[in-house]
Amino acid sequence: NAGVTQTPKFRVLKTGQSMTLLCAQDMNHEYMYWYRQDPGMGLRLIHYSVGEGTTAKGEVPDGYNVSRLKKQNFLLGLESAAPSQTSVYFCASTNRRDTQYFGPGTRLTVL
Amino acid sequence: GQQVMQIPQYQHVQEGEDFTTYCNSSTTLSNIQWYKQRPGGHPVFLIQLVKSGEVKKQKRLTFQFGEAKKNSSLHITATQTTDVGTYFCAGGKYGQNFVFGPGTRLSVLP
Q1: Is A35 within 8 Å of B99 (Cβ atoms)?
Q2: Of B45, B97, B102, the CB nearest to A42
Q3: In sequence order, which ranges of chain A are alpha helices (DSSP H)?
Q4: β-strand B19-25 against B44-49: which pairing, if any?
Q5: Contacts of B59 (CB under 8 A, 6+ apart)
Q6: Which residues from A are below 8 Å from B88, CB to CB?
Q7: pLDDT tens, position by position, A28-44
Q8: Sequence-distant (≥ 6) Cβ neighbours of residue B7 within 8 angstroms
């Protein structure tokens, strides 16, 4: 039982490049979330999903897109990366908006 | 929108001293969760409080939910170096996503 996994763990992009972050969970959770964590600002919700095929905007969705084609996977895309998107990205999953289980994170630097 | 604040932002203590972090919401909550994040790690769930005035203990950790369900506190008795990390509260309201506070970073000097 791996829990929540994220790939990649680290990535460096140049401004304007695109990339996709993958989150996978093996706990059959309905809800999945993408957060970004910046120093002194805690965890801010980017997008979330309440089930396969559904997505919704969170607090800071601009510049990001998501897809939930399979229940176990939640993808976060950056179409044109900007330095302001340098951050640590965490994926989390849960059932019934209960205890959230977080992945190990992806550290992204945009130059 | 809902805002969740935490104080202090940082706390340095000597090993063996007590530590308390406070969480305050701008609106009444249905429940509150606490998470711990070790340096370089990811947030890990500690506990959830649901009832007004609720107090829960986990070994040296005591969690409290305010009577008005707008604030909460986490108290650690006799800190140890293993307590180092950032403690986050997350305020929940029915049908809505949890909102995380900015966290309190605890350092423990041996």
Answers
A1: no
A2: B102
A3: none
A4: unpaired
A5: none
A6: 42-43
A7: 999 999 999 998 788 99
A8: B21, B22, B24, B104
Mark B1-14 as b/e (b = at least 16 C-beta within 10 Å): eeebbbeeeebebe
Q: What is the pLDDT of residue B94?
A: 87
Mean pLDDT of the B83-103 span: 94
Looking at this protein, which amino acid is placed at residue B69? K
**Contacts of B105 by beta carbon, 8 Å cutoff, 6+ apart:** B9, B10, B11, B85, B86
Portion of chain B with pLDDT greater than 70, in percent: 100
CB contact at 8 A, A74 and A49:
yes
Tokens 């302001």 belong to which residue? A84
Judge whether B19 and B107 are in contact, CB under 8 Å: no
Residue (of B41, B34, B88) closest to B58 by Cα position: B34
* CA distances to A19, A33, A98, B46, B93 from B4, in Å: 31, 19, 18, 18, 12
Closest CA to A18 of A81, A66, A85: A81
Q: Spell out, as residue ranges, where chain A has pLDDT lower than 70.
A: none
The answer to whether the beta carbons of residues A105 and A90 sit under 8 Å apart is yes
Using the beta-carbon criterion (under 8 Å), do B45 and A99 form an inter-chain contact?
yes
pLDDT at B95: 85
Q: Is A1 exposed, middle or buried (0-12, 13-18, 19+ CB in 10 A)?
A: exposed
**Residue A48 in tokens:** 């979330």
The token pair that represents A58 in the structure block: 């969170």
Q: In chain A, whose CA is at the least distance from the CA of B103?
A: A42
